[in-house]
Amino acid sequence: MAHNLTLYTSGTTNGWKASITLEELGLAYHAQAIDIFKNVQKESWFLEINPNGKIPALKDGDQRVFESGAIMLYLVDRYDKDNTISYPHGCNEYYEMLSWLMFHVSGLGPMQGQVNHFRCFASVRSDYAIDRCTDEIKRLYSVLESRLSSHDYLVGNKYTIADIANFCVVRVAWILELNLDEFPAVKRWVDRIEAREAVKIGVMVPASAMSTDKLVEMFGAMKAKIDSMQNSDKH
Ligand SMILES: N[C@@H](CCC(=O)N[C@@H](CS)C(=O)NCC(=O)O)C(=O)O
């Protein structure tokens, strides 16, 4: 099928969901790096593509698609005719796949974003906020654990976009100091997905994406800064 794909992205969990999906489908695309630290995603030309002012965003010819979950669904609807990483519309597994995708986009993804914020980016230290979000994240990981302890993948026994979406945040659980040894089935699933060629390439998109070693260093420094602050919670 003819296409003209540009992915606007940076090397973050949400960006990886789109780049891994494109790589898994073997699609040719142009990756345009967006420097979110310079707020390029809030510029008017970008808001024409994603009115929500966040990466990732996709253009396919005249079609724009924003929100990582919508981008993944668009790509498999249009280009995964053999259902290599998806299920056909209407079957039971299709709705199971949607369920795990929504679990991610409305629960795990945003909650991990909140822990990241309070643990690394906040200008004050709030142990209450960190603990509250971390408890919820642990609960969500235990939901994944219970599913993956009896299945290799989240839906049926096939790797799909539901796995890609959830994997992209779980692979950086170390940012939150979550020990995946507490979730052994999740850990095996992360290792299984991390070993895929398309995943190895997708997590290094765009070309400016940082390696895991660099990310560990950067987040380590941010966490040390928060640790050095006094807890600001009022008692
Ligand atoms: N719900 C959005 C979240 C996207 C998102 O939060 N992107 C972050 C990078 S991971 C971003 O663009 N941050 C910069 C900003 O919020 O201005 C999605 O799933 O695509």
From TrEMBL:
Residues 2-83 form the GST N-terminal domain. It comes from the Eukaryota. CDD domains: GST_N_Ure2p_like (cd03048). Residues 90-226 form the GST C-terminal domain. InterPro entries: Glutathione-S-Trfase_C-like, Glutathione-S-Trfase_C_sf, Glutathione_S-Trfase, Glutathione_S-Trfase_N, GST_C, Thioredoxin-like_sf. PANTHER family: GLUTATHIONE S-TRANSFERASE GSTA, GLUTATHIONE S-TRANSFERASE-RELATED. Belongs to the GST superfamily. This is Glutathione S-transferase. It comes from Oidiodendron maius (strain Zn).
